[in-house]
Amino acid sequence: MSLLFRLKLQGDKVYILDLAAKLDETANFLCSEKWKTRSGSAVEFPAPFGRDLTKEEEYIADLDSKTGASLKLTILNRKGRIWTVVAGGGASVVFTDTVCDLGGASELANYGEYSGDPSETQTFEYAKTLLSVMTEGPPHPQGKVLIIGGSIANFTNVAKTFGGIVRAFEVFLERLHEHKVTIYVRRGGPNYQEGLRKIKEAAQKLDLPIHVFGPETHMTSIVGPALGISELPAVPHVPQTTGQFLLSPERNTAGGIRTEIDPAAGDAADHVNHDNEVHENYDSLFEKNTKAIVWGQQQKAIQGMLDFDYVCRRAEPSVVASTYPFTGDNKQKYYFGHREILIPAYKSMAKAFATHPEATVMVTFASLRSVYETVLEALQFPQIRVIAIIAEGVPENQTRKLIKVAGEKGVTLIGPATVGGIKPGCFKIGNTGGMMDNILASKLYRPGSVAYVSRSGGLSNELNNIIGANSDGVFEGIAIGGDRYPGSTYTDHILRYEKDDRQVDPGANDGFSISLEDKKSESSFLAAEYKKR
């Protein structure tokens, strides 16, 4: 909470004439009792845009409050003909900006997004609510357009969410035909092939005009055709990716350490002039021997990190332990390639760090209610260099306190509200980079020359795809998170990149770094700059 005072000085006394308080809604779970009025009623936060919420907006807001996922909807123009169902906060900004840039602002009907891996039922309710508004009233003489877009997801199950959208199509089929709705789809991420297949089957079964594209097509290339100002994008050749190079017979499967071998033929044989040994003169957060401890019961995220380690040919897994205060000490089974390994899980964070002094990174999946105490405790261990805070909705005042303490101890915070970051060939945080098919397609298993910083997790993965297609690949990528006070800023990471001669600024000889301050895709910039080399 911030206070603004109007004061009067009279003699040697100061009088408070008026004051105003700025409340942080994310801190409501901490301060709800303190913020009550004299009559005992809870504080009411004003509706956005200076108007009351519509019944549809209220319904989605209520759904959002009951789930760990994110569901947002704002109706801009109920009679508009351009409607969007966009996955991801960053992607929703990009799609909206593109519609406006191409002259569709007056017809844009809504703004919103869904993210955080909502269930099929939640996505169904979201799509059903939007379609109910879209198909109300008399049909538009030009018909209506529905853009179902999104970046390449890190962990949202595309097949599951698209299953909910298809169910909504079935409910509103007659009204969709009546309003002559044309649908444009572009999406990538976990199980996206199955999701796109569901959409294509629905198009045939329901006789709906649906144009479907995957991650091989640029994210916003469907907007121009949807507005009728350009042709449909040609479907480019999808490069075949394989993990065959991991099956070479020389690999060591008997012990806990793998021997380094040369990559086999195919994409993995791309020669990269980078030394992955530790470089002490670089202010690097991650190298090929970086070890991490994960806070929380996140077996799926840990397994994803281990799979990434294996395709990067790390000698040892990057996760050495997990910690969670509500379970006893135990060991959990994971896979490192084809081999089963056991990773210890500790009840005490102090015991975890004492047992594994080589761990310099902590990835915390603690909730917004407990993350403050968790990070404060972790900051007491001098071996820690990086803490990634995944939680969204952390009270701003708590974040600022954590930033202050971390700065005093020389610890880099990534987040809150972040998917994390990735350093190809070395280390990835949690679910960053998505599933293995995207890791291979974007060539994230070996380092490139291009570093980036983004606020958006989804757009970070989109950048991985763009950079992989237009250059020799990603050197390092960090998503700093979408909160007002990120633990580390664009400038922090750009300055860090400048100290590392394995990549340099745009226009130089070895590579370049880029930040996405406005959340807009920079594919043309990346391609143009890289071709100068």
TrEMBL record:
In the C-terminal section; belongs to the succinate/malate CoA ligase alpha subunit family. Residues 51-228 form the ATP-citrate synthase citrate-binding domain. This is ATP citrate synthase. The keyword Transmembrane does not apply. Its main location: cytoplasm. It comes from Necator americanus (Human hookworm). It comes from the Eukaryota. Residues 288-393 form the CoA-binding domain. The lineage of its organism: Eukaryota, Metazoa, Ecdysozoa, Nematoda, Chromadorea. The keyword Transferase applies.
